[in-house]
Structures
1.
Amino acid sequence: AQKVTQAQTEISVVEKEDVTLDCVYETRDTTYYLFWYKQPPSGELVFLIRRNSFDEQNEISGRYSWNFQKSTSSFNFTITASQVVDSAVYFCALSEARGGNKLVFGAGTILRVKS
Amino acid sequence: DGGITQSPKYLFRKEGQNVTLSCEQNLNHDAMYWYRQDPGQGLRLIYYSQIVNDFQKGDIAEGYSVSREKKESFPLTVTSAQKNPTAFYLCASSIGSYQETQYFGPGTRLLVL
């Protein structure tokens, strides 16, 4: 069965620190997609990235970067030089090829960035 | 501007009452979804629809019902059979229904009086 684990319930950092959010997944499928979403205090989920299981290249987008490692079933998210506006709940999610478009979410990691 | 709207932002339900949450999208997406979020937990899928006049149960469909009469609209009814309805409800849509990115609305918070 598919499962997503975000072991860090809450992380607090000081502005300008780098922070990594961990995501470990379980799936029996060889074809799947991984996602990261951000949920600011307003509540709406904001899409950050989608990565398919055949593309293990790391990705960088501004201060955000993602490290996908199939060998350890992990898809970690790093924020460089964190800012107060990065404070939010971050969710990792998995979609299996056989599951249609069903997303399975981790429990989320609360990130607090203090000035 | 294209997007997903949900209304109302807050909704109060009395015991034994059915309430309906609205979800509308103008993105011309085929697929729509309803998720429930409880404190400290991730989102769980209630129902989804891949095409007009068709929908499937998700992981926690008991006590809920949906309809998909129009492509743009996917209302969710929380029935009196749902014994613990207090939660944050999020609607999403995607272009297609095969591993496409889902985009979310602003959510509706349902509280029981």
2.
Amino acid sequence: GNSVTQMEGPVTLSEEAFLTINCTYTATGYPSLFWYVQYPGEGLQLLLKATKADDKGSNKGFEATYRKETTSFHLEKGSVQVSDSAVYFCALVQGAQKLVFGQGTRLTINP
Amino acid sequence: GAGVSQSPSNKVTEKGKDVELRCDPISGHTALYWYRQSLGQGLEFLIYFQGNSAPDKSGLPSDRFSAERTGGSVSTLTIQRTQQEDSAVYLCASSLAGGSRTYEQYFGPGTRLTVT
């Protein structure tokens, strides 16, 4: 079945540091890939998405590129802020089916 | 416009009691999903509705769990004879029609269920 493996957390960085959270997936066919974010005390929000190979999703300074050859969708940001502290989930879906999530990575940014 | 809403936001119940959790999807969204978020298991899929039908119930953990959707809108997740391991945040999401195309799922704020 489909699965998502995400970088273990928690991750702690200083403000303005470079961020990478690794995500790899296993799927038959060509899934769509997502990064969701959960800020403290809030619900899940879509951060960015990519629906086909080589697509780059971007939002709020975050980027991720759909790499079919390495089955990866790593999340990156060049300069993180304290307000980026949250839990980040990588996920995939095929068609109208269920989202399959990674285990989540808790990110803390210190001023 | 209004997002996905869920009620109650918090529910504390005694072991063995039944509970009902409600989800109001975004108007016009024909697909509705229930997920569960718990410390030990992360985010797990429970059930998917397309209209009032549930083509995928594969994530329901036991026959104590059931869900229905009426009028292609509101959905209720019912847990009978609750157990402590049912304690979790139950999330509802909705999206536009499915088929082979993938649409973004929008999540509600969740219902935090605590079984004592």
